Structure formats: C-alpha cells, structure tokens
Amino acid sequence: MKDELKQIEEEAIAQIDQVETLKEAQDLQVAYLGRKGSITSVLRGMGKLPAEERPVVGELANKVREIISEALENKKTAIEAEQLEAQLAKEHIDVTLPGRHVAIGGPHLLTSIIEEIEDLFIGLGYEVKEGPEVEEDYYNFEALNLPKGHPARDMQDSFYITNELLLRTHTSPVQARTMREVEGREPIRMICPGKVYRRDSDDATHSHQFTQIEGLYIDEKVRMSDLKGTLKLFAKHMFGADREIRLRPSFFPFTEPSVEMDISCKVCAGKGCSVCKKTGWIEILGAGMVHPKVLEMAGYDTEKYTGFAFGMGPDRIAMLKYGVDDIRQFYVNDVRFLSQYHHA
Ligand code: DAH
C-alpha cells in the first residue's frame, strides 16, 4: 500500500508538471484528491491492513495528499501569473502616442471684455449689479428725467410690450433701481453690465440687441474731477497707458453737465486717419454728473449728495480694441470668428 501511495505521488507530480491550463489542474485535483480520487480509494482499503500499519499508512497518505495539493496550487499560481502577464502585454498602452484632439470652448469676446471691466471697477470698490431686461417705463425713462412725451425718448427707439413695459433701451434704469433700493440714504458705487434693445435695423454698426455697462457713483462731495479721473483710469486700463482722453460737452437728460468721452486714436496717435474719421479721436462713452432731479426722485438730499454716472458699450469697445468691423459678428455665433479671441 505504501508503494501504491508512492507511485500515485510520482505519477501525480509527473502529470502536474505537464499541466498547461487551469482546467487541466482542476481535473487532476479531482482525479487524485477528490472523493472518488486515487488517494481516497487507497484509504478505503485501509480496513484490510493490520492495526499497527494503519497509522503509518494513514500518515503517509496525508503526506502524499499534501504534496500533490501543494504542487497543484503552485502550478495554478504559475498559470495565473502567466495569464496575467500575457493579458498585460496584449493591453499595453503606449502613453507616448499623441492623443486625440479635444476641442474646448472659451468665453465669448464680449464676456471677456465685460469681465475685464468688472475686474477693474471691483478693484475700485464698485459692486456689480443686475437689473431686468423687461423694464418698466418708469425706470427706463421717467425716473431718469425723461417724462412721457419728452423728445429725447426718440433718441432710443424702443420695443414696447405694453404701455408701461418695454425691453430696456439702456442699462441706466439700474441706476434708478439702485438708488431706490437704498432709499436715497447711502452712498453708491456700482456698475451694471447687461443686454439692451433698440428698434434699429441691423447693419455693421447697429444691432437691435447689444450690451452696455452702466456706472454710478454717489456720495458726499463727488465732483466732475472724480468722474474724469475714473474714466481716464478706465481708458488707459482698457486701451493702453499711452492713450489720452478728452471730454466733450453733450446732452443726456439724466446728467448735468453731460459729456462724451473720446480716446486718442491708436492707429494714428491723434494725427487723423480713416479709423478716427480724420479727427484723431474716437468716441467711447457717455457720462456726466447725476441730474439733481434724478437724485431727488430717488429720495436723495441734493444738498448733501452728488454723483456721477457713465454708460458704455462693450460691443463698441471690443470692436475698437480688436479691430472687429461688424457688430453682427458678436451675435451670429460663428465659432471661426469667436474662437480667435479665446485667449483674449
Ligand atoms: N444711457 C445712455 C445711452 O444709452 C448712456 C449714458 C450716458 C449713460 C450718460 C449714463 C450717462 O449713465 O451718464 O445712450
């Protein structure tokens, strides 16, 4: 019986040696160690042995079982490792190959310009405000010293929704709303970017929808020189330190005095060229000292408070800064145009 066990061991080891797949290993396990396997059948015959031999043979049988079992385990581990190796080799990725191009978007040029202007004014302590695009006639006109029937209303052809509601023609109503919010009792430093609408026929320089940024500064002892200093800083920040500004007298019903600001032409440095229509200057924005009537309507004590306001068009600023010659480019969403400015 001992010889039989020895023989089983040798045979098993020799077979395990030849094994190449996990399935074969599994089959051998059943054949040798299973309930109907060779070792089990040897052990079944133990009853016929003399009593003193039984423990010896039993021990040997266990040993052989262990040896075979260990050999099988080792084999299985080796096969698994080999398989893993093969799979890794097959799925090898060359990380040095160039990747597929992924197109990413970027901010719209107008968004970039607006954010640049916001950053400047936030740095000066201004708050960024918003107002509704569907606006009440009262805030869009009346509270800005443009009563019904005022001829200056014609300067801004409007899209009316009802008699009292319209698409705002400028961001100036946010001035009136902000003053109303603080009930004429607190100083204000705010800018408000947003979309505005006019009943214009679209062409290279007109769009029925465009953007504006409004600015309002109210406090005690605010003077025209404060407005000039602020606008000069803005102009140099946006267009370059070498640009000069000039203020021309103008008219807006909500400011007195009113001005328009020009910057010196970058192309000809003030000498006169086709970009500046031979004047050497380019108009950038409207501004002025807030009209006492506007302050009064909002509840301010005009003996104590004064202020300045300005309104500018990011579309126009972007066109000048980047040489865009058609305002409609901002609104037709041609990615070939827009993507040129993604670094901007
Ligand atoms: N609201 C004016 C417009 O759309 C621009 C403007 C001019 C705004 C002077 C102002 C200002 O705040 O003081 O034409």
User: In CATH terms, what is the fold-level topology of the largest domain?
Assistant: BirA Bifunctional Protein, domain 2
Low-confidence stretches: none
Bound molecules: 3,4-dihydroxyphenylalanine
Name of the CATH superfamily of the largest domain: Bira Bifunctional Protein, Domain 2
Q: How many domains would you count in the coordinates?
A: 2
Counting DSSP E segments of at least 2 residues, the number of strands comes to 9
Major sheet size, sense and barrel closure? 7 strands, mixed
Q: N- to C-terminal separation?
A: 91 Å
Give structural notes:
By secondary structure, the chain is an alpha+beta fold. The protein folds into two domains: 2-90; 109-341, Bira Bifunctional Protein, Domain 2 (BirA Bifunctional Protein, domain 2). 40% of the residues lie in helices and 19% in strands. The protein has helices at 2-18, 22-33, 38-44, 53-90, 109-123, 137-140, 173-181, 224-239, 292-297, 314-322, 335-338; strands spanning 127-128, 134-136, 165-167, 188-197, 209-220, 245-252, 255-264, 281-290, 305-312. Strand 6 and strand 7 form a beta hairpin. The termini are far apart.
